[in-house]
């Protein structure tokens, strides 16, 4: 409910008028004068009963109103003087083109809502597009675990330069103890590169793989005849860089600098030994 300033001011005036009449009646009763039939000094003006009724009605009006906000102007603004009403076309006067346009707008709004819901879904499958890709490599590292760096380096050399799926297969069937940890790390790196960096998992390969040392812990070992030894419990971790393989013929060929000049790096095509050279002055068939 919205009350204007004029309505509030009118209610306040009624309250003030009723209070003034009550004070007048009390003053007359105090000095010993009887009011004229329930009127004021001059006999004109509203009676006491009328003022009390007006006061009660004003208070009830104020108590029943739920004030959301108070309007500071007595009339509506120019843009809200008329309430817009939707005018429906007469029977037989609607255009089929207007109906088609309205239907297209509804379908476009539904499609936009579905796209927004699809974007908000965290379990959606990301779409790999050239416009959305910004990364070409992904770095991943395992945690330090109990293994010697020399033993872990064997697995690093085995998967270096290989396709990620092929490296996972190699670690799956490897008899090494640390192969299962490396296999799980490769699966996690492949999923992260696919989900967070929009990289195609089928084109991923391990560009570099190296081993780092962790903190060594010392442990006492007791031998025979009271002898004491110190053992080193070694820890190591593996880091690797996953990249996306380029298609053949994509981009410029790689160049290497030789004596300040850029030469194209071309790989020679291997050809078998072809003995197509004619033989002059052949030797005899029997040489003994």
From TrEMBL:
InterPro entries: Ribosomal_uL22 (IPR001063), Ribosomal_uL22_bac/org-type (IPR047867), Ribosomal_uL22_sf (IPR036394), Yos1 (IPR013880). Pfam families: Ribosomal_L22, Yos1. GO terms for cellular component: mitochondrial large ribosomal subunit. GO terms for molecular function: structural constituent of ribosome. GO terms for biological process: translation. Keywords: Ribonucleoprotein, Ribosomal protein. PANTHER family: CHLOROPLAST 50S RIBOSOMAL PROTEIN L22-RELATED, LARGE RIBOSOMAL SUBUNIT PROTEIN UL22M. Belongs to the universal ribosomal protein uL22 family. This is 3301_t:CDS:1. It comes from Paraglomus brasilianum.
